[in-house]
Specification:
It is built from 17 helices and 17 strands.
C-alpha cells in the first residue's frame, strides 16, 4: 500500500514538541492578556481581493489561491492583519469599548518554492496583536514592549530590537512627486537594500548566489552602470571569492536600484541618493539625530519627532537597548510611521516585527481608525526558545493506575474518574499487561506516581523517580 508524506514546507509536531509549543504559546497569550488584549479568530481563507489589497509585493506573489464553488477567488491567509482590519472596517466590533485591543494566534500559509536540502515554511503560525484607536508614540511603545516582555519571560538572550519610521520615505516620495501606486515597490526595494547590508544573511553561498541572480535580473539587458553582473560570474562564485562579493554587494545593489528607480519611476539621481542616504542611517539616538542633521536636514520633521517621542516612551518601560535603523520599512506598503523588528544574530529572519498603519482600516472601506500591531513568527520563536531553554519541559502526569488482576479494572476506572474530577492527570491500564510492564510504561510516559491495585491489599503509591512505596487511602490522593 502506498505511503504518503507530508506536503513540502509543512510540519508534523509530536506530543513532546506540542508540550513545549503549548508552554510558549501560553506565555504569549498570558502576556497579551495582562496588557488588556482580547483574543479573536478569523477564517483560514479570505477573498483574494481582500488579502491582496494591501499586501506587500513579496506576499502578494506568494499566496495559495483557489476558486470556490461560488466562483469567487479565494486565498489562504498569508498573514493576519488584513482579516482583523476587515472585521473592524465592517463594524463587527462596534459593541466593544474603544480603543480595540485584540490578539490572535493562528496558522498562515504562503506559496514558497521548494528545493532539495533547503528548508522552507509554507505553513506557519503567527501570534500577534492589533491596537486600534491610539495614534501616539505611547501606543507604539506598548506594542514594542509586548514582544520584549515575552522574550524576557522565555529567557531568550541576545535579541536585537531595531526601530525605524517609514514616514521619512513617505515625505521623500511626496517631494519627488512619486506616483502613490509606486510607493509599495519603492518601500520593498529600500527594505531589500537594508537586508543586504546585514552581512550575516550572506554567509551562506547559496543565499549570496540567489541575491546576485536577483540583482542580475533587475539590471536587465540594457543596464549601463558599473558592476554589471553576468551569469558567468555567478556560476564561478566560490567560497574563496564569497567575501569579495559580500563586500561589493551593497554598492552593486545601490547602483542597480538607482538605475531601476530612474527607469521605471523617473526618480532622479539626486532623489534616489536621498532615499539611499536616509536608509543608511543607524545607531543610537544621538548618532542617528546627528546623521539626520547632516544628511537629511529638515526632511520629514514629523517622523523625526515621532522617533524621539518613541525613544522617550520606551525609556519609561525600561527599554533602552535598541538600534534606530532608518532602512527598516518591513516591506509593506501599509505602514505609515513607526516600524520595528526584533532579531537574533544567528537567524536570517526577524523573530517578530510590526508597526503603525493609520490608514489601513480606511483603505478596507471602514472609518478612519489609527492602528498599530506586530506579530511573532511563532515557529522561529520556538526555534530560539529550544536553543536556549535550560530545563526539559514535560506535560504534567500525576497517576498511572496499575492493576494486578483483571477484576480490579472497574475499581481502577472509578478511582481514575474521581481523581480526574479533582484536576489530576490519570491513566488506566488498557493493554492487559502484567504489573511490571505497566510500571515500565508509566516510567517511560513520565508519570510521577504509580497507584498499584492488588487483590486483598491496600492501595500502594509508588514514586517513580525514587522508588519510594507508601500505603495511601484513595481520599488522600485528590488533595
Amino acid at each position: 500500500m502506498e505511503k504518503f508524506t507530508k506536503p513540502a514546507g509543512t510540519n508534523d509536531f509530536l506530543p513532546d514538541q506540542m508540550v513545549r509549543r503549548n508552554f510558549v504559546e501560553n506565555i504569549v497569550r498570558e502576556t497579551f492578556e495582562t496588557y488588556g488584549y482580547a483574543q479573536i479568530q478569523t477564517p483560514l481563507f479570505e477573498s483574494f481581493a481582500l488579502l491582496s489589497a494591501q499586501a506587500g509585493e513579496e506576499i502578494r506573489q506568494k499566496m495559495f489561491t483557489f476558486i470556490g464553488s461560488d466562483r469567487v477567488d479565494y486565498a489562504l491567509r498569508p498573514e493576519l492583519t488584513a482579516p482583523v482590519c476587515r472585521l473592524i472596517a465592517n463594524g463587527a466590533l462596534q459593541h466593544l469599548p474603544y480603543p480595540y485591543k485584540l490578539y490572535y494566534v493562528g496558522q498562515c500559509v504562503r506559496q514558497e518554492p521548494t528545493a532539495d536540502n533547503i528548508a522552507v515554511r509554507r505553513e506557519f503560525r503567527q501570534a500577534g496583536v492589533e491596537l486600534i484607536g491610539p495614534a501616539a508614540a505611547l501606543a507604539d511603545a506598548e506594542i514594542i514592549t509586548l514582544p520584549v516582555r515575552i522574550l524576557e519571560k522565555l529567557n531568550i538572550p541576545n535579541t536585537k530590537l531595531k526601530i525605524g519610521n517609514t514616514g521619512i520615505f513617505r515625505h521623500i516620495f511626496k517631494q519627488v512627486a512619486l506616483d502613490v501606486n509606486d510607493h509599495g515597490e519603492m518601500i520593498w526595494d529600500i527594505e531589500h537594500l537594508a537586508r543586504l547590508r546585514a552581512e550575516s544573511r550572506l554567509q551562506d553561498i547559496e543565499t549570496l548566489r540567489d541575491e546576485l541572480n536577483m540583482l542580475r535580473r533587475l539590471q536587465g539587458s540594457d543596464y549601463q552602470g558599473t558592476h554589471k553582473i553576468d551569469t558567468a560570474a555567478i556560476q564561478e562564485l566560490t567560497e574563496s571569492t564569497r567575501s569579495t562579493w559580500v563586500e561589493k554587494l551593497p554598492l552593486i545593489a545601490e547602483q542597480t536600484y538607482k538605475a531601476r528607480w530612474h527607469r521605471y519611476f523617473n526618480i532622479s539621481e539626486e532623489a534616489a541618493q536621498w532615499c539611499i542616504d536616509a536608509s543608511k542611517i543607524r545607531g543610537d539616538r544621538h548618532t542617528v539625530m546627528s546623521a539626520w542633521d547632516t544628511r537629511l536636514g529638515n526632511t520629514a520633521k514629523a517622523a523625526r519627532q515621532e522617533l524621539l517621542a518613541l525613544c522617550d516612551c520606551l525609556q519609561n518601560y525600561g527599554i533602552i537597548d535598541f538600534e534606530i535603523n532608518l532602512g527598516i520599512t518591513r516591506g509593506f506598503d501599509f505602514y505609515t510611521g513607526t516600524v520595528f523588528q526584533i532579531e537574533l544574530p544567528d537567524m536570517q529572519l526577524p523573530l517578530c516585527g510590526g508597526g503603525r498603519y493609520d490608514r489601513l482600516i480606511e483603505n478596507f472601506g471602514g472609518p478612519p481608525r489609527p492602528g498599530a500591531g506586530f506579530a511573532f513568527q511563532f515557529d522561529l520563536l520556538m526555534e530560539a526558545f529550544e536553543k536556549t531553554q535550560k530545563a526539559t519541559i514535560q506535560a504534567r502526569k500525576d497517576y498511572f493506575i496499575a492493576t494486578a488482576a483483571p477484576e480490579l479494572i472497574p475499581e481502577a476506572q472509578r478511582l481514575a474518574e474521581t481523581l480526574r474530577r479533582t484536576g489530576k492527570t490519570v491513566e488506566v491500564e488498557l493493554m492487559e499487561r502484567d504489573v511490571q510492564a505497566q510500571q515500565d510504561y508509566a516510567t517511560q510516559a513520565n508519570y510521577e506516581y504509580v497507584l498499584r491495585l492488588s487483590p486483598n491489599q491496600p492501595l500502594h503509591r509508588i514514586q517513580l523517580k525514587t522508588g519510594n512505596i507508601e500505603t495511601v487511602a484513595a481520599e488522600e490522593l485528590g488533595a
